[in-house]
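User: Predict the structure for this protein chain, please.
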Amino acid sequence: MKGTVGFVLALSALLCALLFLLGRINLPGWLLAAALFVGFVIVRLRMTGSGFLPRLAGWIVLAAALALTFRLFGPPIQAIPAVEGKNPAPTGVVTVAQGDLTGVYTADGGVEVYTGIPYAAPPVGELRWREPQPPEPWEGVRVCDHFAPMSMQVRNATWFNSLTEWGIYHTFRPKLLGNSLEPMSEDSLCLNVWKPAGEQEKLPVMVYIHGGSLTTGQPSWVEYNGESLARKGIVVVNFGYRLGVFGYLATEQLAAESANGTTGNYGLLDQIAALQWVHDNIAAFGGDPEQVTVCGESAGASSVNALCVSPLSEGLFRRAIAESSGIVAKQPYHTFRTLSDALAMGESILTEFGASGMDDLRAVPAEKLVNTKFTNNAMTVDGYAITEQPYLTYEKGKNHEEALLNGFNVHEADLFTLFTKVTGENYVDSLRPLLGDRAADAAALYPPTPVDEKYHWLVEAGGDAKGSSNTVYSAAWFSYSHYCWTRLLGAQDTPVWEYRFTKDNGCLGSAHGGELPYAFGNLDRHAWLYDESDRALSEVMQEYWANFVKYGDPNGAGLPVWEPTRDGRTVLELGEEIKPAADPSLALYELLDAHQNSVTAN
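Assistant: Here is the predicted structure, written as structure tokens:
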């Protein structure tokens, strides 16, 4: 072949290989693609002297065949196993209210894992957008060795997820065998249990709620694996709940259908149902239903905050852990909306799908409905699950948590503002959604600076004021909610321990979610991204979290002392050093307080 054709063919092969890697194509697809390239070369060599159109047709056929191969040999849909390794040993039979079940042991036999246990009936058909119903019993022994499907959500293209893992998380490792995609279904109201192996009694329990803006996420994610914390002597539970339009749609018709008049908080009601299941059944796994701590990160932390004020969750837990979010500001910046806003969006969704009522909308296939152009990512005051603005419940002392461990990361907002450019010219205006007329005052507190190079991802839009803008957004969107939460509990003499996570690393560093693998003890699942200082910090954080679940106090023998706080002015820095430090955003919080008070007054 001529040099130009050979160059184009080599370039095409490289591009194809890149797409196959990002698309996580398994080995048979690679072999077929290789055969197609070899076949093309052979045919092309035999076409010497042929005209332009036959040669063009050859390229078109090759491209079409490769595209078909990419489609046919993409990663299959497969349930995620509860533990790594082939043929894990089954546990003994555990009996819960619905029937008998078994789980599996980890490879070393130290932890028992039970996954995919239904805690509510599948919310499908007539049960879509209704309060969760009790789970159905089963006959025989249910094998709980794979995670249930993740809840319905918009699924990004595989190549996009690979690029995200490569460019943002740095966790992407290509492989030619074993690539798969997690199933997705409305039938996702299942929970998972990790417990120390063997006969156990009265172990404290941590129930974890995953984040994802109430629109994405799944309890099977490796960073939520509860194995390491279970080795600390606690039972760890997590679960799926309805997301997006399935979990937070609100309409007047749905409120009228409900005996409780509720609408807009179906995902939150799922969380309460999961807690009720834990209360009723966790003793079968050696857990103590009277020693439950509810825990969450991001939207999961906002959900924890909502559970602390919901009259429906009273008595289902004692303590709370909240990482990187909350909804107790007078006007929460995210994860919360007014009922009028929720109902207006609900009417827009009915119109979007040409539905005259809820029967019509229930008839829309989930695969179509999930792609609504309206983002349902907020809870609301429905008068049932949440009866008033959450801060009012705290002011009345009707919240439920007896103690709180909570905190935030330094670079919380950075991943949420990647595509926004902020310069000295638009800096003040960029802050107005947070602070209104006090935006200029905030800009004066934080003069324009660019993004920290350690947190400059490939798609960062940048700007000479982007770093300072991210600092303000991190405080307003995330750390301010913890400052408010801590002060409200301090006024009640409820013990609070607050942290500030500052550790840089090869993954997310102290960006949103960066603390999770430390707290859960999952650093070695991406071991190349962390060093011994990270592992040392993770060990301390696991001990803090486990001690809090056990005793309502994170402190313990051999740990740096973590003093409780009443006002949130001093936090425990979790970074290269573990030490008390002043929260650096205190002056900004004063501006946020003033803005919140003025907005609430109006």
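Residues 406-601 form a domain with the Rossmann fold fold (CATH 3.40.50.1820).
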